[in-house]
Amino acid sequence: MTGPRLAAGELNYDGIGLTEHGPLPAHLESVITRAYLGEGHATYRRVADGILTWRLQKGAGLRVRAESDAVVPGTRVVSGFGLGPFRINAPCEVVWVRRPLPGDGPQSAGFGYGTLPGHPVRGEEAFEVEIDGEGRVSIAITAFGTPSNWFYAAGGALTKWARSRVTSRYIESARQLAAGES
Could you tell me which residues come within 8 angstroms of residue 36 by beta carbon, excluding any fewer than 6 positions away? Predict the structure, then answer.
């Protein structure tokens, strides 16, 4: 990468890459959410393409600024949610990517990104679409982390509600990608 980075600083958590290979850190809060999206390789490839071009996040209503139109390792992205002065920016760096394989067998595609200074959490989140041997397509959203400072830690129930709300919006966005609506 040449020129100024979209977000400053370095990854700020332990366990870089664990959303891909695990196990997730036992001492941190972890969440794995799975949802069925449909059937067949066309569905799988639509969702994979959407995940790997930031459309999953955009479809969830986040404002996305990324150093690359495609998800690649090392890319920095700043997702934002909220309105006006109440916008929270969440800078991250892509730490792993898995692209679709040729052929029609069971496989998965997606990516994981980790937090940078300024993110409300210190940790990692991954978005992965899977197709099994029977052609069933599902999404898995895996995250682990801890609040980045006292302010977000004090949010408690509100912070958990916001995380749950964003996750449900990701799933709805994945369903739209699966249906070819995004």
Answer: 136, 137, 138
Give the separation between CA 135 and CA 25, rounded to whole angstroms. Answer: 31
pLDDT confidence of residue 149: 62
Domain membership of residue 16 (yes or no) is no
Is pTM beyond 0.85? Reply is yes
* 3-state SS, residue 148: coil
Residue 143, in any domain of the structure: yes
What one-character-per-residue DSSP string does 116-136 give?
-TT-SEEEEEEEEEEE-TT-E
Six-digit token pair at 14? 């332990």
Which helix (DSSP H) or strand (DSSP E) does residue 5 occupy? none
Q: Looking at the predicted structure, is the pLDDT value of residue 83 above 80? A: no
Beta strands, E only, the chain:
29-39, 63-66, 76-81, 88-98, 107-115, 121-131, 136-147
Tell me which residue range forms the domain holding 115: 29-178
